[in-house]
Write a structure and sequence with these properties.
Layout: E1 5-9, H1 16-30, E2 38-42, H2 48-54, E3 60-64, H3 81-86, E4 91-94, H4 97-102, H5 107-119, E5 123-128, H6 132-136, H7 140-152, H8 157-160, E6 164-167, H9 181-199, H10 201-206, E7 209-212, H11 220-224, E8 231-234, H12 241-248
Parallel strand pairs: 1-2, 1-8, 2-3, 3-4, 4-5, 5-6, 6-7, 7-8
Helix pairs in contact: 5-7
The protein binds 1,3-dihydroxyacetonephosphate.
1,3-dihydroxyacetonephosphate binds at residues 9, 96, 168, 173-174, 212-215, 233-237.
Length: 251
């Protein structure tokens, strides 16, 4: 059965010291508590190794926010999937709309990244989502479907089954304008039907699909109560334990 997951995406925030303090605070807050979801923190690259050693990784998984589309070699400034795995991080966020928009990551590049992440033993958290004009012109389903098809549908069923998906409507990211629970459920159900048509009901049923975009303590419970919303990918509200813990506890 698919897992409930609450994952934080810290984006480009926090010094190493601040990040480690937050990781430790979350670890303490979760100690001895029964929570009904898997918790993940997505940190900048330089925090990964220290984050892994600051938390009980059975309780808090650690994710990178990107990886290179090449295995190794003369690619100055890049960080490979296998380097990420060597820190003890087990997840990698790929295809975030900020990567697509600001760093020109195409579906083909993302396809490579997903493959390299899987080869390195990382679990990709693959992001998809439409921009406002696409939603307003009724193209949001087509956009999301083609993002999935273009980067993921040449994976074998065995590999596809290792992924986590995150639906993040771009108009909801960092805007305070959350998708309504009904909008989230409608899209998540559509995504699951799209997966079922390609990989069958069992894989579709077992894939965790997270919602991201201005999710917070105030709206998490209602979002997560939808049958096809299996958790959240949280930006701003993952940057402090006070804001992140209630989202974890919304399950
Ligand atoms: P916000 O929660 O800040 O809207 O960011 C969402 C996001 O982009 C998570 O990846």
């Amino acid at each position: 059965m698919r897992k409930n997951i609450v994952a934080g995406n810290w984006k480009m925030n926090k010094s190493l010291q601040e990040g480690i303090a937050l990781a430790r605070e979350l670890n303490e807050a979760l100690k001895g508590k029964t929570v009904h979801c898997k918790v993940i923190i997505g940190t900048p690259y330089i925090h990964l190794s220290s984050a892994v050693s600051s938390v009980d990784t059975d309780r808090i998984g650690v994710a990178a926010q990107n990886c290179a589309d090449k295995e190794s070699g003369a690619y100055t400034g890049e960080v490979s999937a296998s380097m990420i795995a060597s820190t003890g991080a087990r997840y990698v966020i790929l295809g975030h709309s900020e990567r697509r928009a600001y760093y020109h990551e195409t579906p083909e590049i993302l396809k490579e990244k997903v493959k390299l992440a899987l080869t390195a033993g990382l679990t990709p958290i693959f992001c998809i989502g439409e921009v406002l004009e696409e939603r307003e012109s009724g193209k949001h389903f087509d956009t999301v479907k083609s993002q999935i098809e273009a980067s993921l549908f040449d994976l074998s069923p065995e590999d596809f089954a290792k992924l986590i998906l995150a639906y993040e409507p771009v108009w909801a990211i960092g805007t305070g304008r959350t998708a309504s629970p009904a909008q989230a459920q409608e899209m998540h159900a559509f995504i699951r039907r799209t997966l079922a048509a390609k990989y069958g009901e069992e894989i579709a049923d077992n894939t965790s699909i997270l919602y991201g975009g201005s999710a917070n303590a105030g709206n998490a419970k209602e979002l997560f109560s939808n049958p096809d919303v299996d958790g959240g990918l949280i930006g701003g509200a993952s940057l402090s334990a006070d804001k992140f813990m209630p989202i974890i506890e919304a399950f």
